[in-house]
């Protein structure tokens, strides 16, 4: 159901967020919220 084109910049941002989550810099909840914001704004 994903109609948006896969934006490499968005993927890069999400990868960055994922690294922060893995390193314990942000919580899973923060990760989800930020990821949703990125996807909504793309």
UniProtKB/TrEMBL annotation:
One Pfam family linked to the record: SHOCT
Domain of life: Bacteria
InterPro entries in UniProt: SHOCT (IPR018649)
Taxonomic path: Bacteria, Bacillati, Bacillota, Bacilli, Bacillales
Domain named SHOCT: residues: 16-39
Record-given protein name: SHOCT domain-containing protein
């Amino acid at each position: 159901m994903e109609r948006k084109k896969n934006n490499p910049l968005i993927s890069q941002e999400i990868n960055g967020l994922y690294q922060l989550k893995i390193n314990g810099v942000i919580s899973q909840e923060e990760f989800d919220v930020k990821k949703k914001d990125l996807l909504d704004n793309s």
